[in-house]
Amino acid sequence: MWTPQGATAISANGQQPSSIDRQILALAVPALGALVAEPLFILVDSAVVGHLGTGALAGLALASSVLLTVVGLCVFLAYATTASVARRLGAGDRVGALQVGVDGLWLAAGLGTVLAVALWAAAPWVVTVMGADDEIARQAVTYLRWSAPGLVGMLLVLAATGALRGLQDTRTPLGVAVAGAVVNTVLNVTFVWVLGFGIAGSGGGTALTQLGMAAVLVVVVVRGARAAGSSLRPAAGGIGASARHGLPLLARTATLRGAILLTTWVAAGLGAVTLAGHQVVSSVWGLAAFALDALAIAAQALVGHALGAGDVPRTRGILRRTLQWGTGAGVVLGIVLGGAAALYAPLFTTDDEVRHAIVVGMLVAGACMPIAGWVFVLDGVLIGAGDGRFLAWAGLATLVVYVPFALAVRAYAPPGAQGLLWLTAAFSGVFMLARAVTTGYRARGTAWMVTGT
């Protein structure tokens, strides 16, 4: 592993590694809990709707994939806000930091409203494009339309959470996420089973929960803004600035989604065993990603704060320590998830071929997990530094590198476990390694370390 330039001096102000470690954990552990909120919502919805029949569950699967894609593409609302707020806070401008948070809320509210209306209107067309039959399509459209108002809530949650992370508060979003998970469960059971609203009750219950979570977090940010003396109106050009900062991160996220969709398409072309195994491997990989993303969030907040304060040595120190944490976490997760694959594979299927494919795929994914830990942290560091434009171009470059490898797997790999082995190696190895090279090269230099506000 290379040592970043200047990393030998952990901090110019005397901070020791143990102090940085405590800051990383204080931010990362609560962030991990909050990250699990949306997947928990989908899990609860699946458990409740599953009792309505196969058609309803299949409709939920289709609709939830659409919703998760939309929300995933809008994650820039959290990332861009975290970086900007942390930078201003580090520069001692708490008023400006909270003003950025308020501007982010206005952008989220406007974008969420537009997307909610568009989703409600386009739901039948979207479902048709995805090829669902009549019963599944009907259930999916119903869920999408009843859950559409929740998009406003989810985007406000993203923006408010980003502001609070920038203020180095990850506990409040965690508390709201836990409360939201409980309320969502109660509302779903009540609306679907007790009142008999069907899948509409599930979508509506989740939307109400998301709007409630947004209301709580918005109140927290607004109170902080009032106490600091920030305006609750959007600053002149503030929403536009938030959008400009977010667009490169939107492009970056789009390239990641493109790689994931391409991987699923390749798996589908290699047969049912490969596709079924890929579903499990990608789900377990996603679970590991939450732990690694929590470290990335800590890196965002700490790096943004350090650069805002103009403390370059501390920035290098944070880079070094978070990379050690990320790579170490990747090693541990890789050993556990890869080594235990034979134990948990039977939980997902009784098919011996699929079980074997899962074990083979997870052994490869586990071996590549340290690379993922490195990549996630570097992503967080560069996002915290506001280096979104580079990440957008790097994302496009890595996707271009990955596409021929993925297409080669589709064309030449055999079906079954061997196909999943090569596909997992292409995504977890080639794609993630390309991201590691591009972001690592960037972090080694100084162009991303722009200090001040």
Automatic annotation (TrEMBL):
GO MF annotation list: antiporter activity; xenobiotic transmembrane transporter activity
InterPro entries with a match to the protein in the record: DinF-like (IPR044644), MATE_fam (IPR002528), MdtK-like (IPR048279)
Record's subcellular location: Cell membrane
Name of a matching Pfam family: MatE
Membrane-spanning intervals of the chain: 24-44, 56-79, 100-123, 143-164, 176-201, 207-225, 259-278, 284-304, 325-345, 357-378, 390-413, 419-437
Gene Ontology cellular component annotations, sorted alphabetically: plasma membrane
Topology class, membrane: Multi-pass membrane protein
Principal localisation: membrane
Keyword RNA-binding applies: no
Keyword Cytoplasm tagged: no
Keywords of the record: Cell membrane, Membrane, Transmembrane, Transmembrane helix, Transport
Family under the similarity heading: Belongs to the multi antimicrobial extrusion (MATE) (TC 2.A.66.1) family.
Descriptive protein name: MATE family efflux transporter
The species this protein was found in: Cellulomonas uda
